[in-house]
Specification:
There is one protein chain. The protein has helices at about 25, 80-95, 110-120, 125, 140-150, 165-170, 225-230, 255-260, 265-280, and strands at about 10, 15-20, 40, 45-50, 55-60, 65, 70-75, 100-105, 130-135, 150-155, 190, 200, 205-210. The chain is of the alpha/beta class. The protein has 3 domains: about 1-50, no CATH class; about 55-210, P-loop containing nucleotide triphosphate hydrolases (Rossmann fold), CATH 3.40.50; about 225-285, Ribonucleotide Reductase Protein R1, domain 1 (Orthogonal Bundle), CATH 1.10.40. Strands 9-8-7-10-13-12 form a 6-stranded mixed β-sheet, sandwiched between helices. Strand 12 (about 200) and strand 13 form a beta hairpin. It is globular, with a radius of gyration of 21 Å. It binds guanosine-5'-diphosphate and zinc ion. Guanosine-5'-diphosphate binds near residues 108 and 165.
Length: about 290
Amino acid sequence: MNKIQGFYNIESNGKEYLCKLRGILKRSDKRENCTVGDYVVFDEDGFITEVKPRKNLLRRPLVANIDFGVIQFAAKDPAIDYEKINILILNSLYNKINPVLIINKVDLLSEDELKEIKNNLEYLSKIEIPVFYISTYENIGIEELTEFLKDRVTAFGGPSGVGKSSILNLLQDSRELKTGETSKRLRAGKHTTRDSRLLTLPTGGFVIDTPGFSSVDLPPTEDAQELISLFPEFNLGEGCKFNNCVHINEPQCGIKKAVEDGIIPKERYEFFKRCYEKSKNEIWNRYK
Ligand code: GDP
Ligand code: ZN
C-alpha cells in the first residue's frame, strides 16, 4: 500500500479501501477529525462520511479506541513508586482507557520482597485491574502478557529505565508498521501521524510506545464526585448516610467504615484523601 497524503486506509469485511474525508469532516482542519483506530462510515465514491464516537483518544501519538493502557514500573532499580502508580491509574480511568499494570525486573527480588509488592498491590484485583509480574531477563510472565495483548491495541507508558523497550522488543514483530500501511485487525484507520509508533504484534494487535503517558499530575476533575468516580471500589460499599458524601468528614460514612473493617486498604483511603485535598486546593476552584 502506498502512502498518499490525505488518503485513509480502511479495512472492512476483510477488504481494504482507500478513502478521503468528505469536506464537511475536514472543514475544521483538525488532525483529530479522523485518526488511526477510528471506526468510520464511507460511501461508494470513496468518501468517509462519518466518524463514529470514540471510547477514548490518545494524543501522543494520536490513536483512537485504545483497548488498554499499560502502566509499567520496575520492582527495583528504579524503585517501585506506589503514589505514581495510583495517579497514573486515576488518569487512565479518567481518560476511559482500561489500565493494566506491569511490574518488571522481578528477578531482582527475593521471594519475600516479591510477596510484599504483591500484597501491596492486591487491592487492584478487586477493581479489576490486571497486574503482570515480569522479568525480561528470565522470561517470566511474557507468555501470559502476550496472550493478554493478542488482537488488542495497547499503549505502553511508564518512567524510563523500567525496561519498557526490553518488553516491547520481546513482544513485537521485528517489523514496524510504516505510515500508510494498514492492518487487517484494526477495523479502520488512518496512518498519517508521523510520530505514530504502532508496533505490530506477531499474534495480532498493536502496541504503542507512548511518551505522553508518564504524567504524574492528578486528572483535571471538576468536583469531588468526579474524583470519587475514579475510585471504583468506593462504589461497591453499603453507601453513606448522605448521598453526596465525599467520605472525608461526614458521619456514618460507608467508605470510612469499609476502611475500618479492612475492606478498603488504609493506604488506598489515605491516597484518596491526598487527591481530594490537592484537587480541592489546586483544581476545583478553577471552575468557580
Ligand atoms: P526503558 O528505559 O524503560 O525503555 O528501559 P530499557 O528496556 O532500556 O531497560 C533499562 C535497563 O533495565 C537496562 O539496563 C535493561 O537491561 C534492564 N532490564 C530490562 N528488563 C529487565 C529485567 O527483567 N530484569 C533486570 N534485572 N533488568 C532489566
Ligand atoms: Zn461517605
